[in-house]
Amino acid sequence: EAGVVQSPRYKIIEKKQPVAFWCNPISGHNTLYWYRQNLGQGPELLIRYENEEAVDDSQLPKDRFSAERLKGVDSTLKIQPAELGDSAVYLCASSLDLRGGIYEQYFGPGTRLTVT
Amino acid sequence: QKEVEQNSGPLSVPEGAIASLNCTYSDRGSQSFFWYRQYSGKSPELIMFIYSNGDKEDGRFTAQLNKASQYVSLLIRDSQPSDSATYLCASLMNRDDKIIFGKGTRLHILP
Predict the structure, then answer these.
(1) Contact (CB, 8 A) for A114 and A11
(2) What is the spatial distance between Cα B44 and Cα A104, in angstroms, rounded to a whole number?
């Protein structure tokens, strides 16, 4: 079974430029998460989708970040414009329906963003 | 107060010994707890989850949960150099189904 796929793996951009990340979750997983992980920290949730619906985007900086999950499968996360403080690893994860209570979350390899 | 707290380490343990990793949480409504292993430059991978008080064993790993004291621990028996990694504790917050991660504990197994 293929795991969570993310692209690109690495991205270097200048500040104020836009950037987009793509995620393809594990087949059949209807819950998708975007996390940001800074060096020496645990992942911090940015947004969680259940199918097409963003059910938790309370930590998403909406002035510059946006996300979409069309057709309830692939998802993109966009930053426009990027700031120096956005440099981090952006992780996508997926799981089966959270409502079951106990579930396993599978992470993709992440995109390492460097803003210069 | 952080919602999930871990000692950042590094925790150094001789090969073959038991490594003990601890985590405390602040939300008494948290129901489920997870331990992830993260190698340097890699993404987290789930090792175990636990939701009932007591111990849960899986191979060399044992997760322990004490809801009254609000702590979760992970024991690794017969530690191997390949166990050297950062171990992330996470809790599922009951109030909003949000998973909160700790900062992680760096574990170093000494050959």
Answers:
(1) yes
(2) 12
Record the tokens describing residue B36, joined without a space.
């992830």
| Cα–Cα distances in angstroms (integers) from residue A111 to residues A26, A90, A104, B31, in the given order | 17, 5, 21, 31
Size of interface A-B (CB pairs under 8 A): 46
Residue B94 DSSP SS3 = coil
Extended beta strands in B1-111, E state: 4-5, 11-14, 19-25, 32-38, 45-50, 54-58, 61-66, 71-76, 85-93, 98-101, 105-110
Q: What is the pLDDT of residues A72-97, one digit of tens each?
A: 899 999 999 999 999 999 999 999 86
pLDDT digit string, tens, across residues A2-53: 899 999 999 999 999 999 999 999 998 989 999 999 999 999 999 999 889 9
Give the whole-angstrom CA distance, residue A96 versus residue B56.
22
**Each residue of B49-100: pLDDT tens digit?**
998 899 999 999 999 999 999 999 999 999 999 999 999 999 987 777 788 9
Q: Which residues of chain A are within 8 Å of residue B42 when distances are taken between CB atoms?
A: 109
Name the minimum distance, in Å, from the CA of A78 to any CA of chain B: 20
Structure tokens at B99: 């998973």
- In B, which residues are within 8 Å of A45 by CB distance? 98-99
